[in-house]
Specification:
The complex is a heterodimer of chains A (about 120) and B (about 120). Chain A contains no helices and eleven strands. Chain A is mainly β and about 120 residues long. Chain B contains no helices and twelve strands. Classes of the chains: A mainly beta (about 120), B mainly beta (about 120).
Chain lengths: ~120, ~120
């Protein structure tokens, strides 16, 4: 099946630093990738939609200058949390939409394993 | 507006019991997709099922079954003869066609299956 990786799987950083999270589709092309955030014991909330070769579309309430998204190729999207603060500590999950859905599969998008961010 | 509601926050059952997780959705669109995902303690989301709005047939996959009722905007998920390994958080989600495929998740239901 389709595989999406995220790197790093977890990161601890000091307040004020920037953190970059990578999302890669390993065996398929993804013109669209999604970034979700999940606080402890809460649901997944979509932060932004990342489109290859164009600007990301951010959900209401998400600061685009704080959460920089770059989708430079059909297999890679990056999320950079700039000037991270303790309230940014969360579980960040990406998903990639397969441009050509695998035959016989009902999945339309594939999730990465997530990145746990802890800002001290 | 689109919304997914999972009213059950936590459910605890004893192994081998059957358990049903409820999901109610709201949308004015006539074409949409509904999903169920499992999230074990590791955090990774596991795809369970996708159903489109034109297909109201119920589906069974092993111990899992899904009941889609458009009349009540519900898409309930039943686990038969539950096992300890079923313990996880389960999310119901909605996706609209023509909306890039982004998912709107319910609040999730934490299922604990005790031995």
């Amino acid at each position: 099946g389709a595989v999406v990786s995220q790197h790093p799987s977890w990161v601890i950083c000091k307040s004020g630093t920037s953190v970059k999270i990578e999302c890669r589709s390993l065996d398929f092309q993804a013109t669209t990738m999604f970034w979700y955030r999940q606080f402890p014991k809460q649901s997944l909330m979509l932060m932004a939609t990342s489109n290859e070769g164009s600007k990301a579309t951010y959900e209401q309430g998400v600061e685009k200058d704080k959460f920089l998204i770059n989708h430079a190729s059909l297999t890679l999207s990056t999320l950079t949390v700039t000037s991270a603060h303790p309230e940014d500590s969360s579980f960040y999950i990406c998903s990639a939409r397969n441009t050509h859905r695998l035959a016989g599969s009902k999945e339309t998008q594939y999730f990465g394993p997530g990145t746990r961010l802890l800002v001290l | 507006a689109q919304k997914v509601t999972q009213a059950q926050t936590e459910i605890s059952v004893v192994e081998k019991e059957d358990v049903t997780l409820d999901c109610v959705y709201e949308t004015r669109d006539t074409t949409y997709y509904l999903f169920w995902y499992k999230q074990p303690p590791s955090g990774e989301l596991v795809f369970l099922i996708r159903r489109n709005s034109f297909d109201e047939q119920n589906e069974i996959s092993g111990r899992y079954s899904w009941n889609f009722q458009k009349s009540t905007s519900s898409f309930n998920f039943t686990i038969t003869a539950s096992q300890v390994v079923d313990s996880a958080v389960y999310f119901c989600a909605l996706s609209l066609t023509g909306n890039t495929g982004k998912l709107i998740f319910g609040q999730g239901t934490t299922l604990q299956v005790k031995p």
